[in-house]
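re: ur msg from earlier - yeah i can do the zinc ion complex, just paste it... oh wait u already did. ok heres what im feeding in:
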Amino acid sequence: MTETSRRERRDAIEGCLENLRHAVHCHDNGCTLPRCSKMKRVVAHTRQCRQSKRENPCAICKQLVALCCYHAKNCQSARCNMPFCGQIKRKLEAQELVSLYSRPRAV
Ligand SMILES: [Zn+2]
Ligand SMILES: [Zn+2]
Ligand SMILES: [Zn+2]
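and the outut:
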């Protein structure tokens, strides 16, 4: 990857994180930011999605968790309310990134 494309990719991720950060804190149902309502839908989805996030995450969850991983690696806040941030940080500390999304449930 060239230096430029790496930077572009990072900018794109940062942009998504900005949207996510806004959506998490935005409680205005009439918010007119188009990306806000989109992000809110994504966050709402991951909260109620029943598909295993480890074995077979759906595309939406996969994307959001990847985004949150990126955030969590740089996050210094102990009481951050970004989705998955606390979980990811604990896992990073435990070096168990692989089992990150595991939440075994009875079938
Ligand atoms: Zn908003
Ligand atoms: Zn999902
Ligand atoms: Zn965080």
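cool cool. Residues 1 and 99 are 28 Å apart (CA to CA). ping me if u need the other ligands too
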